[in-house]
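ok so for the tutorial part 2 we go from a plain amino acid sequence to predicted structure tokens. step 1 is just haveing the sequence, like this:
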Amino acid sequence: MNMQSVRGFEYGVIHCRPEQDINLVSFIEKQLGGFSLSAQELLNLGSVYVNHNRITEEMNLSNSDYVRIHRKPRRFATENIHWSERIVFENENFLMLNKPAGIPCHPTVDNIEENILTCLKKSVAQNLFVTHRLDVPTQGLLIMAKNKESQTRINFAFSQRQIKKKYQAWSSSDSVNLGLHEHHMIKSPRAPKILVNQANENTDVCQLIIRNSSPLENGQEYEIELLTGRTHQIRAQMSTMGAAILGDTLYGGATWDMDPNAIALWSWQLEIPQEVFGEAYAFTLKDPKLKNTLASRHS
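step 2 — the prediction. this is what the tokens look like for a chain of 299 residues:
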């Protein structure tokens, strides 16, 4: 028995119950309906739920079980990335990664394999813990804790705004002035995010500082210090201020041909104060190849 919605059909999601006792793989195969992945591939990706629990192995079903199958999970290109080369620094407490664009930081609802956390854990053969996130198309400095205590320390430091995060963004517009910019994001799980100027019970504050602004041949480079860390915050604020980021078509940015998985936004500098681990750390992402490529594409 199928329970399908219009939005679910668009994304290949199906909600169903078996009419009789059957094993899970056989049941999934009956529901594929022309979608390209096999039942086993969907299980391996973590795209199947039984009674609201993610299932990755074969099991037997009865007619009382509720099954949700993501038949078209979003895929991310992780197979050709040399993860060890992207490690900027590591010690016993944390690992600093230069995150590639086009990959989520953590498992998604329909894919537990193709993400930064899973791939990096396999590469370094060690458990890791997420401390903060970068959007899928954003690249740059990302901290992964090596133990729960370090994760707690880093998370607390982020919550107290002790860790400084600076980004570089490229836009076709020079409309944004230097200084503090504050907006209020309407609370919603969906994107694009909507910002308003006045706070209310349904909004979260968004603050960033434009520290520097310099011209490009066909646009502007902005140095941004992020004070609050809302989902899509920089992207939404820059768009609201009339300077959507290059490649960020979700927020009205001009298209570019640098990388179809990326936008012109990267986590550029990150500072951890001495209070967190007893020693201060400062990281700057130096990637002249990227910047030279960007300059050549837009000159």
